[in-house]
Amino acid sequence: MGSANSSEVAYLPGTVTRSVKLLVAGHFGAGKTTFVGSVSEIRPLRTEETITEASMGVDDLAGLPKKTSTTVAMDFGRRTFGGTALYLFGTPGQHRFLPMWDELARGAAGALVLVDTRRLDHSDEILSAVEKRGLPYTVAVNEFDDGRRYPPEAIREALDLAPHTPLTVCDARDQTSSIKALIVLVEHLTSRPEMLA
Amino acid sequence: MSRPRRDPDLVRAYVMTGGAVRPSREMGLVTLLVAQDAPVQGLAPEQRRVLGVCSRHGALSVAEIAAHLDLPPSVVTILASALMDSGHLAVPAPIADVPEIDVLKEVLRGLRQLV
Q1: Which residue of A64, A169, A179, B98 pairs with A141 in a disulfide if CB–CB is 3.0 to 4.6 A?
Q2: For the structural domain made of A16-44+76-196, what CATH number should be given?
């Protein structure tokens, strides 16, 4: 067990009283952790949750005796805007951790789905997982140096995206590029009909 | 191993929370918490650890507390809920009724200023 080193703890300014949670989703290796690190104002942090393999829910400790458990790591970062702290959580990419998303998605305002064009077929289950939880989302193609470039319409078709779902490209290593992808997401979230009603 | 054994991490978590299995309050990964001026006598060691990483001057989220203490967020929510019940922790301001749309717009303005 590690112990806290107070000198490393970056407290929020006293003016911050609100928080927003966004998910950065994507398959294993899509660049989620890199993206979170590019945007975060603090060194990205990691939490580990113990979950049961049997139910794959966040563990209800009352169900202790008969279950085997596993550990799921989540990387996250933070960026402060005025009185609001934005938290970005990278979702666990492995297939078997998809059920873990129930807890992550609870209270999330939306999700940015990062896509690697070399593995477009791996994105289906990520998109399904996001949709299943009713999260509004946008898609950002993380352009890897050795990845093939496809026209947006081809990617849209390959991912079977709805016409109203914004699609953008980004370089997760680049702060400005990553922030632009986030802007597309937050614009999408603030322009949804149910938000404007 | 002749039979499955209980996972030591789960046993540890169960002990740390004093046997509590659910938080007494609605609390999520990004719930913000600040320390309050209250005597720490009588607090369990794990509660003291959570309180010790919190500040009276600036908030931390449940997720950050969990990361700094190397505790699962689910355990931190249970410990922090109890500390709120006892007056040692609080959310940073009375829950102002700011609509989510306005919070998101504040984030959007901030993001746009960065590019």
Answers
A1: A169
A2: 3.40.50.300
ipTM of the prediction greater than 0.95, yes or no: no
pLDDT at A66 over 60: no
Q: How far apart (Å, rounded) are the C-alpha atoms in residues A114 and A126?
A: 9
Chain B: nearest CA to A122, how far in angstroms? Answer: 27
Give the pLDDT score at A52: 67
For the record, the structure tokens of A84 come out as 């609001």
* pLDDT at position A62: 53
Return phi, psi of residue A92, to 5°.
-60, 130
Specify the number of domains making up chain B: 1
Output the CA torsion sign for B55, A16, B63, B115.
negative
Q: Any idea what the Cα angle at residue A113 is, between residues A147 and A152, rounded to 5°?
A: 50
| Pairwise CB contact (< 8 Å): B111 & A17 | no
Q: Rounded CA gap, B31 and A86, in Å?
A: 12
